[in-house]
Task: inverse folding
């Protein structure tokens, strides 16, 4: 089964990953790719560089970032391959553990629904 683990951060802190975190994350990513549990991962640029496109009953609108009304934003994601939700949670815990006590971060883990489509 595939799961999406969305990393939620408080963008307003302006916190940048330390060299220690980047090194630990690199090791973990390499390990999870080798074992076949990590399909894809990436961090996301700040919301000030993004836009929201919305359809409200057919009326389209575009809002440029930053999105000041939002406290927590998706700061990155991982697509993981796991045998169950519990396995996906364990993999996500490994990711969160690399952050140590220097970050306040959470992940939302959700299974993919149905078939996956690629362009």
Result:
């Amino acid at each position: 089964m595939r799961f999406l683990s969305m990393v939620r951060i408080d963008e307003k802190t302006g916190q940048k990953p330390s060299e220690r975190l980047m090194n630990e994350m690199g090791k973990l990513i390499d390990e999870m790719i080798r074992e076949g549990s990590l399909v894809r991962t990436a961090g996301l640029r700040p919301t000030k560089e993004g836009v929201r496109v919305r359809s409200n009953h057919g009326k389209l609108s575009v809002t440029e970032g930053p999105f000041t009304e939002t406290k927590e934003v998706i700061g990155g994601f991982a697509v993981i391959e796991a045998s169950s939700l519990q396995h996906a949670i364990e993999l996500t815990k490994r990711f969160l553990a690399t952050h140590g006590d220097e970050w306040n971060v959470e992940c939302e883990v959700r299974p993919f629904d149905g078939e996956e489509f690629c362009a």
Observations:
- The mean pLDDT is 92.
